[in-house]
# Entry
Amino acid sequence: MQTYIKTYGCTLNRADSDIMASLIHAAGIGIASSERDADTIILNTCTVKKQTEQKILYTLDRLVREGKKVVVTGCMASANRDMIAKHAPGAPIVTTSNTDMVVEALLSIDKGASSAFADRRRIDKAGLIRPTGSVIARVPASEGCLSNCAFCETKLARGPLNSFPEDTIVKAVEYCARSGSKEIEITSQDLGAYGFDRKTDISKLMKRIAKIQGDFKVRIGMLNPEHLHRYLYDLIEAMQGDRFYKFIHVPVQSGSDRVLSDMRRSCSAESFAEYVSELRKGVSGISIETDIIVGYPTESEDDFDMTMDMVRDIKPDITNISRFGARPNTSAAKLKPLDPETVKRRSSELSRLVRKVQNGINAEYVGKEVNTLLTENSYKSLNGKTDSYKQVVLPASAGIALGTAIRANIYAASANALYGSVRGI
# Structure
C-alpha cells in the first residue's frame, strides 16, 4: 500500500499529518510523495471556512470517481460525518481525537471494510511526535479550547480543552532539536488556553523550552486574547529571550465591542489594544498578527468603521481577513446574513487599508541587514524568517542550505514579504 496525506487548514492540522505520517511509516506502510503515486489518500480536513470545505468536497468527489481509496481525518471528519458519508460512502473516518488510529483505518480500508474511529478521547499527541530531521517541526501543545465563539465550528470538531503534559512537550521539542530541526512551531487550537486544565500556562511552558540546549528557534502559535490577562507579563519576559521568534498571533475579529459580544468573544477591542501596546513595549521588534471577520450578520457600517479605525491605530504587521460564512451547527448560522455586495465592499476596503499598513511597516526594512533563518525552498526562491518572523525572499540561485542562519540585505519590500540578497551572491 502506498499512502499520500493531503492536508488542509492550520498548523495544528499539519502537526496531526506529521504524526500520522510517522505512525504509518512505523507500521511499514509506504508514504507516497504525490497523490498520483498513491493508491490510498488520507484527506486531513479543515472546517473553518466554507470555501475550504467546498475544495475538500470537490477533491473527495474526484477521488471517488477515480476509484481511489480514501480515509477522511481532521475537523470535517469530526464535525460533519454525515456530509463525508454523502460524498464518500464507506470511507473510513478518523476524528481529531483518534489520530493515533490512522493505521487501523488504513488496514480496514485495505481489507474492504468500512470503519469509523470517532469516540471522544483524550490522547497525548505530543507523545506521538517522532522527529524526521526536517528543518521545520511542529509540536502540538493542546487541542480543543475554552471559548464558545458563535461563528466557530472548530470547537465542535476538537471539543473541550485537552492540554498535553509539559514534560511530553519539552521532550518532543528536545527530540526535534536533536534531530536537526531549526524552527519548531508550538501549535494548538488556542495556545492562550494551554494549561488551564493542568494548573499551568503557556508562559511557564515557554520558560522550560527556553532552557533546552541546541541551535533552533521556536514560534509560538495563536493565542486568543481573552486569556492574556492571566500571564501577560510572564509571557513578555519569556519572549525576550533569544529562543523565541519575536512574534505573536492574537486574533481580535472586530473593532466593535457590540459585534464582539454578538460573536461571544470574551475580550473587548480596548483590551486587545492594551495587550498589543504592552507586548510592543516589552518585546523589542515584535510582530503582531491578528484576524478579522468582515460582514458578521450584526455588523453595521458604524461597527465596520470601528474596525477600520482599530487597524489604523494599532497597525498590525499581519491582518488575516475573512468574509463571514455561516458554518453548520453554529449559532451564527441562524442569523440573517448581510447583503453579499456589502460584505464584498467592506472586505475590499479593509484589504486596501491592510495592504497600506503592511507596506508601510515592511518598507522600513529596506536598506537594512537582518538576521534570517532559511526554512523553505520553493525552487523559485529561497525563503526564510527574520527574528520577528517576517518572510524574507532570496533568489533560488543563492544556493544556501536550509537551516542556515544568514544576514540578508533587504533591497525591496511588499505587504507580505521582504526581498533580500546575500553579500557575494
Summary: The two ends are 45 Å apart (CA to CA). Residues 340-363 form the longest helix (24 residues). The chain has four domains: 2-117, 122-245, 249-363, 369-421. DSSP finds 13 helices and 19 strands in the chain.
